[in-house]
Amino acid sequence: MQRFQVWAPHARDVRITIDGATHDMRAEDRGWWFCDEVPQAGQRYTFSLFDGTEWTKPLPDPRTRSQPDGVHGPSEVVADDFEWTDHDWAGIHLRDQVIYELHVGTFTPEGTFNAVTDKLEYLAELGVNAIELMPVQPFAGTRNWGYDGVDWFAVQHSYGGPEGLKRLVDAAHAEGIAVILDVVYNHFGPEGNYNPLFGPYTTHGRTGWGDVVNISGPGSDEVRAYILDSVRQWLSEFHVDGLRLDAVHAYDDRRAYSLMEEIRRVADEVADETQVPRTIIGETDQNDPRIVNDESRGGYGLSAQWLDDVHHCVHTLITGERQGYYIDYGTVELLADTLRNAYRFRDTWSEFRARTHGRPLDLSQVAPWRMVTFTTNHDQTGNRAAGDRPSQSLSPEQLALRAATILLSPFTPMLFMGEEFGARTPFPFFVSHTDDELARMTREGRLQEFARQGWNYADVPDPLDPKTFESARLDWEFEKEQVLLHDAYRELLEIRRTRGFNREDLRELQVEHGETWLTMRDAAEGSVTFAANFSDAPVTVPVGGELVYSFTTPKVGAEETVLDPWGFAVLA
């Protein structure tokens, strides 16, 4: 920052207070205001706005880089003198990544970036080479999933602030691990969002989490610049390897050039400048190929998208749950179809939506590794009433089967922290709002939402209670069963890396199935076959050979194999 500046088209006058001294600001083009005071690292500052009648209270900078006293406090000038050591880092292409999603506050007892750094060697030994951090932008208090962030250029102070994040990225690269940052550009959090006082950052309408961000209406050029400058900051200054864009279907994206295209172009520019690949992943359940199709085919050209469908197929088969959107899943036939086509819905009927949904994805043009899938994630765990994990109710055999199906699929796999050892701690929704009315609305809103889904009120923990947050902290003391599951994950990831399961495309993938079993293999010479039993009774599958790996004890013959209940086998 060369001088203090702020975009405030709503204001008639603007003042800035720097370390207690107040200065007038002058208006320039298109709602920008400037002060010639030279920023110095460590200075605290606020803006006050005059609307023609009265002055606001002192407000933090919408482009603040640091909020050491929280989202309501003054902003801090940050030094840009971090000494990077990752000069030899060449990055990791998405097709070669195994991603590990984690929440900084609950991944370790300390809940800091430094503590995550201490676990990098563990992750590398497991077979993980990319970590995806749930949002780290500032939120009210110290407990939050991160999706209530309000300052899109800053980093949560209790995690370690901007320097702490840079240290983590630098250390991860030294360990051979890429870093993906989960970012939320579809809404602002409900507490500490002062941006609408400055200008038209939001517009009419609701996303379900907050007001719609103004990326298409009057004044949206500067709001888009606000987002794109944030994207460039993370990818360039912070050396982050990629971004996961939260709920892109909630963007009010009606202009001729999609915001997603513009984000991808920034990522491409940074990749060209640094010669390190940058990945942009979009989260959507729309089964819309425009997310990953390139511009010549009418798409936005993102690197990848989160793919819920494989998770939903596997989850319903193993748990038997069919409530909510799970009603559209539940058979081995649907799992086989989704493995072949990526999208469950391709302009086909959805019972949950009571309408047709989706559009076919041409997998001859889009490689399967551009779909990111998982056995669970923060949503699929935390949006259950109690935040219970699959590992709290399923057997080790069922957990290993889930893992094998995902890790040996042709898609890019993502683990959710702790699943690799069958964590017994839940991951419920938690917040630490300081506004009493907002706290009340949050509690009631969660109860009402779960009631609509048929959950019991008694199963829903209080999201404001510190004990709810504490319950989510991972327990790193493993019991015997957890050690066995951890070893299975490590073996499966090694098989994925060395046995050809990281496929470039699906053209040679063969998926066969019966009522309760499924086999998957690449027709290329020398490949191996994955065979799985999605039932509680033994089943014979029409493939045999040499056993490479199994979590159970299948009976392997030359032409057929008997799989144990919930068993699988990797066969050469």
From TrEMBL:
Annotated site, Transition state stabilizer, chain positions: D379
UniProt-listed NCBIfam families: trehalose_TreZ
GO molecular function: 4-alpha-D-(1->4)-alpha-D-glucanotrehalose trehalohydrolase activity
Subcellular location: Cytoplasm
Catalytic residues (UniProt): D246, E283
E.C. code: 3.2.1.141
Main location: cytoplasm
GO cellular component, one term: cytoplasm
Protein's name according to its UniProt entry: Malto-oligosyltrehalose trehalohydrolase
Family under the similarity heading: Belongs to the glycosyl hydrolase 13 family.
Primary gene name: treZ
Binding site for substrate: 244-249, 308-312, 378-383
Organism: Corynebacterium glaucum
InterPro entries in alphabetical order: GH, GH13_cat_dom, Ig-like_fold, Ig_E-set, Trehalose_TreZ, Trehalose_TreZ_E-set_sf
Pathway(s): Glycan biosynthesis; trehalose biosynthesis
